[in-house]
Structure formats: C-alpha cells, structure tokens
Amino acid sequence: NLLAEKVEQLMEWSSRRSVVRMNGDKFRRFVKAPPRNYSVVVMFTALQPQRQCSVCRQANEEYQVLANSWRYSSAFSNKLFFTIVDYDEGADVFQQLNMNSAPTFMHFPPKGKPKRADTFDLQRIGFAAEQLAKWIADRTDVHIRVFRPPNYSGTIALALLVSLVGGLLYLRRNNLEFIYNKTGWAMAALCVVFAMTSGQMWNHIRGPPYAHKNPQNGQVSYIHGSSQAQFVAESHIILLLS
C-alpha cells in the first residue's frame, strides 16, 4: 500500500509538472526510502538569483526539454520520474550526499544504492537533453526521444542573410568582379578554418557550461581541470590572446 501511494503521488505531481520539485523530506521519502519500483532522475541545482549560477539555468532548460519529451511521449509510464532539488530548498540533501557543486544529475535505481555510473559526467559530456537521454537509456533502458519546441530564429537569420546577399548582388549586377577576387575567398576560407579549430565547434556539439561556480564558496573556475573537457570561457580567452 505504501508503494502504491508513493507511485500515485508521483504520478499526480508529474501530471502537473514534468519535473517534480523536492525538498529534503520529499527526497528522503520518495527517492531514498524503500519500497520503490521506479527510477528517479534528480537534478541538484542552485537556481536562486542570489546564487548567480548561469550554468544551472542553462542546464535546467535542457532538463525541462527532456522531462517534457518523456511526459508527452506515448511510452510515458510510472517507471521513471524527473525531479529537482534546489540548494536553497534542500541544503540538507546536499550535505547528506557530500555534494559541493551544481548542477549535478543523479539516477537513483529502483533497488540498491546509486553506483558511480549513476552520476552523469556533465563536465565531459555537457548537459544537452540528447546526451542526458542517452545516459538515462543506459541506466534504465527507458528510451526518450527528445522533442524541442520550434525555434525559427535560425530560419529567419538564414532568410535575412540570403536576402542581404541577393540584394547586394542585384545592386552590383553590372560589376561582379569581386566574386572572382582570390584574396576575398582566401580570407573567408581562413575565417572558416579558425572557427573550426578555435574550440567553438566543440562547444556547439558538446554544450559545455560557460564556467563553473562552486555553490559552497562562490569560487568561479574558467579553466577546466581536465584535458578531456573545457569551458566556453576557455575558447574566449584563447580568442582574446590571439
């Protein structure tokens, strides 16, 4: 009966919001305490404005996209729930788990304690919804197809660029010698090469945070401690130095 009540309550909360907000008491009751026959993905974060965690806000947006994709998918069930624990609402949970950084994603399996692989490697992989979905599939065998809300900014920008180029060619239709300018094409090629090797493409693909701020002491790190990952700020620093 206790398990049925817990599942029913989580389903009710999930029907209202894709991501269930939890404090310390709810976390201990629905995530830590048995019985439990469902998996729980928890995002530990610090979203309050005074924390000034821009990475937390960006990661939360991706997390919401993933949770919404699961909630509105045909495969939605009571086998997986998405929750969030904010530092200002559950500081005791952070202390209990010896957690001193945010954001952090953890998977709590139906039975047993979380293993090392149940903590998402955000620093190496990034926090894109697609990467989170792949990690969840590895841990739970629940496959989530990510659906993003339509974004027409790219289409509008492309249309404006085509219109601008078309207008320029029309205005200079009687003098198109600049198209055959080898120096201009060489400069354009160099710009593309520099963009591809500057780290911006890595940032675009992996979606790393701009920097990392420790929620405990407020210290901000702009250089990643591992050679296998980087922050967005690193590529900007290299750009300024060059």
Automatic annotation (TrEMBL):
Location(s), subcellular: Endoplasmic reticulum membrane
Domain of life: Eukaryota
Key word Transmembrane helix present: yes
Chain segments annotated as transmembrane: 152-171, 183-202
Pathway given in the UniProt record: Protein modification; protein glycosylation
GO biological process, any: magnesium ion transport
GO cellular component: oligosaccharyltransferase complex
Swiss-Prot/TrEMBL keywords: Disulfide bond, Endoplasmic reticulum, Magnesium, Membrane, Signal, Transmembrane, Transmembrane helix, Transport
Record-stated family: Belongs to the OST3/OST6 family.
Protein name: TUSC3 protein
Gene name per UniProt: Tusc3
